[in-house]
Amino acid sequence: MDKSIPFAASPPQHGAARPGWVYLVGAGPGDPELLTLRAARLLGEADVVVYDHLVAPAIVDLASPAVERIYCGKRRNDHALPQGEINLLLVRLAAAGKRVVRLKGGDPYLFGRGGEEVETLAGHAVPFEVIPGVTAAAGVAAYAGIPLTHRQYAQACIFVTGHLQDGSMNLDWPGLARPRQTIVVYMGLPGLETLCRELVAHGLPADWPAAIVQHGTTTNQRTITGTLATLPTLAQAAKLRAPTLIIVGEVVKLKDKLGWFEPVS
Ligand code: SAH
Asked: Residue 244 forms beta bridges with which residues?
């Protein structure tokens, strides 16, 4: 291979990370080894780390022990800090000349409010960079043995949030209930029953394959597979705990053949 051809964007060369900057960093779905090299380097150079509950402690610990750590919570119904305060906290820390690593689970720009945090930074003229991470869909699917697309089963894959608003799920059901498409639902456990019911009501067969994966990529990974008809009951019986990811589509059938990850706690 001609080594003079750049095959990846090289990180900006600043020497040590600059003071008064915010690095919005994706921490991946759980397994600390899924962190990017850039994320690991920035953690080693940080003055302060601001992190959410989905970020593995082993990742936060890549920062030196002397580094200030600020936990922002963000479990459902437990926001240690409201989003507006997190946004302004980042501005304040950068204004004080700190190199801030803002760690978010998965990828910062997928269902993580990363866009809102960066909007505030931009509005206050705080310099920032965004470092992508392995989003839960990619990480969890790989470790669960479920390819998100497959020539035989799915040519498209759609990511949605199943977050309930006023107890209902406001999704484009006709757009979701399509053959040859995989649906990945983030934050879907509380609405699993509604999700399965609506997909069937909008045309998917009741025996359409579906899976739910708890704590994917970690030693607590558990995968429950079933159909749109059976998954809600199976998931309830399994007493799954968040975070969980729901994958709907024929690709789920490949799990038995392609599963490889054996969580050992
Ligand atoms: N920005 C994150 C998503 C944040 S929303 C990302 O790109 O992955 C949080 C949701 O992500 C959880 O409710 C769950 O649906 C999903 N999730 C994150 N980590 C997960 C994991 N290890 N296993 C299963 N689902 C996960």
From this structure: 214
